[in-house]
C-alpha cells in the first residue's frame, strides 16, 4: 500500500481483530509543522506501533478528519478538524480526502443538515471558495435559512460627516465648512456577512452593527463634507477603520480605496504589514470614499485555535 494513500474499507479488520465500527476513508499524505497544529486538542492520542493502526483508529472514530503519526515515537494523534499543511514541514500529516464517507462541512447549511443543530454560533467550515481551508464562521439563522458571518474582534468603525452634519460657517480663505452638528454619523460592525460562495462581504448588511444617526453607507465606506480636499487646512471628519485581526482572514491586499465627489480624495491610507488593519481618511466638498470594488476576504497564516469554534463532522 502506497505511503501517499491509505484506503480503509468498511470491512477492514487488523490482524483478524474487529475494531468495531469503521467508515470508508481515504487519507492523503502531506506534511505540516508543530506550530500549525494543536496536539492538546486531539480527540484521541496514544501509542501505536504502526501507521496502519493509527489509520485504523481514525476509521473507528467517526469524528476523525486528520491525523499525525510520529513513527519515531510511535505516537498517534487524531483530530476533528483539518489543520494547515506545509510542504516544507517536518511532521507527517494525513488528511481525509473528499471521497471518504465523512467530510468537513462546507457551509452552515451543511452543519444544519449533518448535525441537526439549530442554534446560532461559531463553527469551523471548509468553503470551496477558500480552497477548503478551515474557516471560523458565525452561523446565523440556523433554525430557518442559515447565513454566514465573520466575527470581528477589533474596532471596525466608519465615521460619516455628510451635508446633514455641518453648520453653514463657510470660511472663504480655505473653503472649509469649519464646524458640524454633533454627533457625527457612525457605524461599528461586530460581524460582517459573507457570501460563502465567493468570500465576498455583503457590505450593506447591518445585522450586527451599532449605529449613530441614520447611517446609509456600506462596510468600508465613509464621507466628508468639510473641505474641498486635503490641500487646504480644513479639518476632515470622515474616517474608516477595518480590522480583521483574530479572524484568520484579511481583506484582499490588492483592494484599492478611492473617492468620488467635488475635490474628493482619500488620504492617510495605512495598511499593516500582515494586511489585517486598514485605515484612511476622507476629504471633499462633499467627498465619498470607499473600496474600488467588491470586498473579498482571503486567508492568512494567522493561527486561530480550534477551541474558538465548534467542530462538526459530516457523514454519509
- Mean pLDDT comes to 87
Query: Tally the helices: what do you get?
Result: 2
Poorly predicted sequence stretches spanning 5 or more consecutive residues:
1-20
What share of residues is helical?
Answer: under 10%
What would you report as the Rg, rounded to the nearest angstrom? 25 Å
Number of strands: 26
Helix/strand/pairing category? mainly beta
Largest sheet: 6 strands, antiparallel
What amount of the residues lies in strands? Answer: 35-45%
| General shape | elongated
Q: Major sheet: order of its strands?
A: 1-2-6-4-5-3
N-to-C order of helices and strands: EEEHEEEEHEEEEEEEEEEEEEEEEEEE
Taking the alpha carbons of the first and last residues, their distance comes to 25 Å
Question: How would you characterize the overall build of this protein?
Answer:
The longest helix is centred in the N-terminal third of the chain and has 10 residues. By secondary structure, this protein is mainly β. The protein is elongated, with a radius of gyration of 25 Å. The chain contains 2 helices and 26 strands. The strands form 7 sheets. A 6-stranded antiparallel beta sheet has the order 1-2-6-4-5-3, with helices on one face. Strands 17-14-11-19-23-22 form a 6-stranded antiparallel beta sheet, with no helix packed on it. A 5-stranded antiparallel beta sheet has the order 8-9-10-15-16, covered by helices on one side.
Amino acid at each position: 500500500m502506497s505511503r501517499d494513500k491509505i484506503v480503509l474499507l468498511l470491512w477492514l479488520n487488523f490482524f483478524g481483530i474487529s475494531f468495531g465500527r469503521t467508515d470508508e476513508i481515504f487519507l492523503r499524505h502531506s506534511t505540516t509543522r508543530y506550530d500549525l497544529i494543536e496536539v492538546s486538542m486531539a480527540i484521541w492520542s496514544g501509542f501505536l506501533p504502526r501507521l496502519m493502526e493509527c489509520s485504523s483508529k481514525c476509521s473507528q472514530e467517526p469524528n476523525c478528519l486528520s491525523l499525525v503519526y510520529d513513527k519515531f515515537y510511535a505516537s498517534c494523534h487524531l483530530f476533528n478538524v483539518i489543520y494547515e499543511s506545509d510542504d516544507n514541514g517536518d511532521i507527517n500529516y494525513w488528511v481525509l480526502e473528499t471521497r471518504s464517507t465523512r467530510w468537513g462541512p462546507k457551509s452552515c447549511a451543511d452543519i444544519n443538515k449533518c448535525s441537526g443543530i439549530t442554534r446560532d454560533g461559531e463553527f469551523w467550515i471548509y468553503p470551496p471558495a477558500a480552497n477548503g481551508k478551515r474557516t471560523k464562521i458565525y452561523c446565523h439563522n440556523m433554525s430557518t435559512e442559515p447565513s454566514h458571518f465573520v466575527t470581528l474582534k477589533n474596532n471596525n468603525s466608519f465615521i460619516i460627516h455628510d451635508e446633514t452634519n455641518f453648520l453653514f460657517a463657510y470660511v472663504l480663505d480655505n473653503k472649509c465648512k469649519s464646524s458640524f452638528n454633533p454627533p457625527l454619523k457612525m457605524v461599528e460592525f461586530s460581524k460582517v456577512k459573507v457570501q460563502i460562495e465567493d468570500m465576498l462581504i455583503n457590505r450593506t448588511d447591518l445585522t450586527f452593527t451599532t449605529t449613530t444617526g441614520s447611517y446609509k453607507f456600506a462596510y468600508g465606506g465613509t464621507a466628508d463634507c468639510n473641505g474641498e480636499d486635503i490641500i487646504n487646512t480644513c479639518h476632515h471628519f470622515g474616517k474608516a477603520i477595518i480590522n480583521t485581526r483574530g479572524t484568520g482572514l484579511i481583506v484582499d491586499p490588492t483592494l484599492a480605496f478611492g473617492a468620488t465627489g467635488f475635490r474628493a480624495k482619500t488620504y492617510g491610507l495605512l495598511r499593516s504589514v500582515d494586511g489585517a488593519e486598514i485605515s484612511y481618511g476622507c476629504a471633499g466638498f462633499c467627498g465619498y470614499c470607499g473600496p474600488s470594488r467588491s470586498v473579498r476576504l482571503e486567508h492568512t497564516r494567522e493561527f486561530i485555535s480550534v477551541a474558538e469554534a465548534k467542530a462538526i463532522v459530516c457523514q454519509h
